[in-house]
Amino acid sequence: MERIKREDYLSILKNFKDQQIIKVITGIRRCGKSTLLELFQDYLKENGVKENQIISINFEDSDYEELQDRKKLYEYLKSKLIKGKKTYIFLDEVQKVNEFEKTVDSLFINRNVDLYITGSNAWLLSSELATLLTGRYIEIKMLPLSFKEYLSAFEDKTDLSRKFRDYLQYSSMPQAIELFKINPENINLFLDGIYNTVLFKDVMQRKGITDKNTLERVTKYLYDNIGNRTSMKNISDNIEGLEKNSSYNTVSTYVQALIDSYFVYKANRYDIKGKEFLKTQEKYYAVDIGLRYYMLGQSSGKDMGHILENIVYLELLRRGYKVYIGKYDDLEVDFVAKNSQNTVYYQVALTTREANGNNNEILERELTPLKKINDNYPKYILTLDDDLDADFDGIKKLNILDWLLKY
To answer: Which residue has the higher pLDDT, 244 or 265?
Structure first.
């Protein structure tokens, strides 16, 4: 299988190579973490690192099952270190090792070790690792393929609209591309494997959840309501069979477990005018729209406005922003994207055109909240309309595909 070069993530690893800091790569299963490690190992070899200076262990591989004992793992790694030379250690899905953080801590203090670890759930960093290694690691939060990365796998770059529909329907997971090229009908089996592994292995087993039926209904509710303001009460009120006195806590536990396994992402609300973060009516987004199609069926594609919102949300995360739902008085801004240097506001809509060709009402609805924001930060409306680079008193309207590929 041809590997897609994940240049943005790869560049981070290159920048931190040989620095005394642990590189922690997190993300949902099958999003490309193992391939990223392989790509980086190829880069090391191309730049003078010898084969015996690289130790790579994938704990999903049964050949390494014995090394899931942290003491045996440490002794094994220690025996492979090359005196006087840098050794590059890659521990893939390291959360399978009991008390792995103690081994990681022991390796970290060795100046001749450059350490890279991956994990498929946020418990990796909610463990003692974060306490032991405060300030001594960076987290690289990996997502499935961006549309630009997806497109790079095809020689033919024409018919972007069709390829974008395929990107949505047939998954942004890297392996899904190869399956798509062979037979798109195979993708549902692949997604079924991800779905079952994440829900029943990462969520149920790790969190001790026994009610599979309720967990599935909570998951489907969140995927069916991407882009809608939601609360634990909304969810529990829509799921039958939960005891009312325990439903809030139950739902809250399930939702947090889905977030921790990177199956679901939560966007909190931000009061733009009051400059404060709000604790209620957050929104949830799916890690992959292909998974949403798999779970909810083809009819879920009718909700294209919220699907586009989901795509923009994930893309902003890839670009290094913290992303919030904006509130200005009683109006809503789809996204407030913040990083250390900038804030950017986004509205996302399928179109700003009326069916009769008059484009005033929908456009004004999208423009109004942005016009009220009294600062000089960039403001955008993203749609699938083809009137490129329209400008409304400094508020730019862009085609989403152009924004995904060129901006």
So the answer is: 265
Residues 32 and 177 in one domain: no
Tell me what percent of the residues of the chain surpass a pLDDT of 90. 81
In which element (H, E) is residue 190 found?
helix 187-197
Query: Does one domain contain both 182 and 329?
Result: yes
Long-range contacts of 60-64 (CB under 8 A, 24+ apart): 60/92, 60/93, 60/96
Same domain, 165 and 21: no
Same structural domain, 188 and 336: yes
pLDDT in tens, 32-85: 999 999 999 999 999 999 999 999 999 999 999 999 999 999 999 999 999 999
CB-based burial, 175-186: b 16+ in 10 Å, e otherwise: bbbebbeeeeee
The predicted model scores a pTM of 0.95
Structure tokens at 141: 């939060």
Collect contacts of 197-206 with beta carbons under 8 A, ≥24 apart: 197/29, 198/28, 198/29, 198/120, 198/261, 198/263, 199/263, 202/29, 202/120, 202/121, 202/261, 203/254, 203/257, 203/258, 203/261, 203/263, 206/121, 206/123, 206/257
